[in-house]
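The instructor's notes for this session suggest beginning with a concrete chain rather than abstract definitions. Hand out the sequence below and ask the class to guess, before any prediction is shown, which regions might be ordered.
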Amino acid sequence: MTITENTGSIFTSSRQVTGPPSAPPPPPRPESLTVGLIVDAITTNPASPEGHALAWALRDAYARPGSNEHGLFAALADTPVVVPPKIPAYRSPALAAPADLNAPSEPLSGSDIAWLAKLSEDPAKVADADVQYVARLAAARRPESDRRLLSIVLDPIKAHHEARAKVAQLERVIALAPRNPADPSTHPQYGRAVGLIAQRIQHDTPELTADEARVRARAEIVKGVERHGAADSAAVQARRNLTELLKATGLRSEHFPDAHTWQIGPPPYPGR
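After discussion, reveal the predicted structure:
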């Protein structure tokens, strides 16, 4: 079995352990499983792909079966992964056609005016082919009165499709953002993580009492949440923008059906 530890914000060194497939990894050095790694594990939602991958890596690379560390990371790695939905970019109908500026001004025909009058006033109910035809009519040089008529028809359609494209964009930001717990103290493995961190703090600072070490351990977890704050803030702002956009336009989100009712704030931790 080959275990590779990556370098980066989560992993702090690089090593490779080779042995039989069934052999457990060798006992870790006391400093190998750092406070920072434990904090990252408990402040990254284990139901997210990122948290799940982290828990598996830590369990395999550092923790001996039967140890407190192994129990913590096994519990995290066994958490079902919530795979974010795949949200494609919104494809709107052609809302603009190339204009021939050299063509003579041509008024709308009576049949075109009659056809425009029959179009639904609800932009969502106008077929894509009809939208494209209106766009072609608007691209030609027209008398001022015809331009005003085409603008009355086409502007709401443009606004509708632009809003739908924005909804899809916000849905993608929300779906792909890290889903980290707003309050790690609600995490089912919180107590075990605090205990492990406190052990390492007390090992490095033996003059601390057990209670003092646990206070510092909780403070380290708070710092971990703050480190995730920048990434989470983009998702929070996207949630706020999506809710406001849905309320303003009457649109609904296909991937987050209750988004128009969201109370503005950080995403809830799954299972709370």
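Then share the key points. Residues 1-31, 265-272 have pLDDT under 50 and may be disordered. Strands lie at 2-4, 16-18.
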